[in-house]
Amino acid sequence: QKEVEQDPGPLSVPEGAIVSLNCTYSNSAFQYFMWYRQYSRKGPELLMYTYSSGNKEDGRFTAQVDKSSKYISLFIRDSQPSDSATYLCAMSALRAAGNKLTFGGGTRVLVKP
Amino acid sequence: EAQVTQNPRYLITVTGKKLTVTCSQNMNHEYMSWYRQDPGLGLRQIYYSMNVEVTDKGDVPEGYKVSRKEKRNFPLILESPSPNQTSLYFCASGRPNTDTQYFGPGTRLTVL
């Protein structure tokens, strides 16, 4: 069993809809939770970063962490075609740079105009 | 422009022919890392380096070598590539114990 599970999709939604993404994990030592966005033929870029449990909002993006359930989510409101990408969750027991990151397999999202 | 660059971006080679993928960053980052990305498996760390002359194995180091002789460069060496090393490779850098790793554009390697 993988340490981090993520549905590969594709997840297809109409423009303006809410995109809901999630990951489950098994390692209770994870404390730092990240969402990366990866466009085709590009490297991943950090989208959201959360420490421990709780919610974090940044514009149209909301990240949620439920450590008791070992479940994290990313919501994209008012989705745009430019949101079409692969979204990777990642997590770590320590802060990201310089420490081991464990990634999910990624969910491909397609927002249709 | 702050960036991580990788070369080549695409490479097709044959089994056993040594190759090097270069990685360079212009952000004066101490930490650099190599990942491979395979369908359904996400990114898996190959090697990482906390500073010049300091390197360590990640999750999947077999068949790879690295060196860190200069702060800005972190080349990935495949001494004798095999078909199971066909993958998409990413280099990343960052400041230790910060939130962000900055990824390069990727190198798509095919080993025949």
Quick structural gist:
Chain A is mostly beta strands and 113 residues long.
Structural description of this entry:
The complex is a heterodimer of chains A (113) and B (112). With 113 residues, chain A is mainly β. Chain A is 0% helix and 54% strand. Chain A has strands at 4-6, 11-14, 19-25, 32-38, 45-51, 54-58, 61-66, 71-76, 85-92, 102-103, 107-112. In chain A, the strands form two sheets. In chain A, strands 2, 4, 5, 9, 10 and 11 form a six-stranded mixed beta sheet that branches. In chain A, strands 1-3-8-7-6 form a five-stranded antiparallel beta sheet, with no helix packed on it. In chain A, a hairpin with a 6-residue loop joins strand 4 (32-38) and strand 5. By secondary structure, chain B is mainly β. Chain B has no helices and eleven strands. In chain B, the strands form two sheets. In chain B, strands 2, 4, 5, 6, 9, 10 and 11 form a seven-stranded mixed beta sheet that branches. A four-stranded antiparallel beta sheet of chain B has the order 1-3-8-7, with no helix packed on it. In chain B, strand 9 (87-94) and strand 10 form a beta hairpin. Chain B is globular, with a radius of gyration of 13 Å. The chains are: A mainly beta (113), B mainly beta (112). At the A-B interface, strand 5 of A face strand 5 and strand 9 of B.
Write out key terms for the chains shown.
heterodimer; A: about 110 residues; 6-stranded mixed sheet; 5-stranded antiparallel sheet; about 55% strand; B: about 110 residues; mainly beta; globular
Low-confidence stretches of chain A: none
Summing up helix and strand content along with how strands pair, one would put the structural category of chain A as: mainly beta
- Class by SSE composition of chain B: mainly beta
Intertermini distance of chain B:
36 Å
Alpha carbon gap, first and last residue of chain A: 37 Å
Order of helices and strands of chain B: EEEEEEEEEEE
Please give the structural blueprint.
The complex is a heterodimer of chains A (113) and B (112).
Chain A: E1 4-6, E2 11-14, E3 19-25, E4 32-38, E5 45-51, E6 54-58, E7 61-66, E8 71-76, E9 85-92, E10 102-103, E11 107-112
Parallel strand pairs in A: 2-11
Antiparallel strand pairs in A: 1-3, 3-8, 4-5, 4-9, 6-7, 7-8, 9-10, 9-11
Chain B: E1 4-7, E2 10-13, E3 19-25, E4 31-38, E5 42-51, E6 54-57, E7 65-66, E8 76-78, E9 87-94, E10 102-103, E11 107-111
Parallel strand pairs in B: 2-11
Antiparallel strand pairs in B: 1-3, 3-8, 4-5, 4-9, 5-6, 7-8, 9-10, 9-11
